[in-house]
Amino acid sequence: MSFRYTAMAAAALSLAALATGGLAQAADLPVKAAKKAPDLPFFLVIDNRVTFSYIFNASQPGAWSTRPDGSIDSKTTKQVYSFTHFDLWAYGTNFFTISMFKSDHNDPAGPCTNAGTIFGAPATCAGATEIYGLFRSTFGWNELFDTKAFTAGPLRNISFEVGMDANTENRYFGAAKRDVVGGLQFAFDLPYKGYINVAPLVYWEFANHNSFSQCGLFGPGVPGVTCLADGNTSFKPTWAVEVNYYMDLGFLPPNMQYFSISGRAGWYGKKGTDTEPLPYSPANGVYNTAVELNSEPIRLTFDASKAAWGDKYSHFVDVWVAYRYWQNKFGLDHNLAVGCTTPVGGGRVSTGSCTESSLYSGVTVKF
């Protein structure tokens, strides 16, 4: 996967929009006498949060087992523990999140001698653990060039955006990746203190370890022809589009204005073959990567602390529920790639392990 602007910092991002707009508007107000402007702190907004969440029907490439009736079970639950930091400073924003995903036994940690992908039997090993980190930073054109030229109608700003992602897993397949992104972000206002950000980017996964393509896992193979000796590859740069939004449900009656909606979506283009730099060759088990969609199209958040203690404590404790959809996980074609399919009757059928469609819920606490 690649991007994830999670909605856990949605309230902070909304505050950032308000802070930026408030400073700009204040500069236009008439004054009776010139006064010395107070020194602004380096960070105008700092927001730190911890979250516990639960994915009810997660999936993981290569992680599946066979039920007694012969059907394939590729679903696993995941507990997620996250820390998120957001800040706003004079020239832009910084967003960082790190999460630990803990699977149940149907996505076993490695080594595991009875994983379903190896012996076709339900695994009884401990669940796998994945650590995933993401960083995004923006530099606003209005702030960099000291102008308002990039604010027009609902367009609030255009920014340079850079970032990176990294993950590591203790599964039998030992997957890990590193990538960088760079491009632009277009920030638009929505009603009720909301926003939507659209970022066209260049995405480069410059380091990846994937044991599906490593010689020895699914047979001896021929290094440089059917497999990679060490499973390490560097994919080709490709395009990406990342979108995230947030909006308070301000149209509700005053005694119900504790709810907000948010969401995100990231599309990542084809980045070569799944065993890059080996050429496309179904006979050798080498397939093209596919366009990846990693999304949380809707999250409904209840501001529990505001409901319990008033506006002063808004978004100190959030309870939320979301829908999560992730197709062609990590760019693997869910209908063709070796890590997503299993041999049946001379052909290959999808195990469902490379597409995730799940309810997702959690509690977020600001500190």
Automatic annotation (TrEMBL):
Record key words, sorted: Signal
Signal peptide: 1-26
Record's keyword annotation contains Signal: yes
Protein name: Uncharacterized protein
Native source organism of the sequence: Bradyrhizobium forestalis
Lineage, broadest ranks: Bacteria, Pseudomonadati, Pseudomonadota, Alphaproteobacteria, Hyphomicrobiales
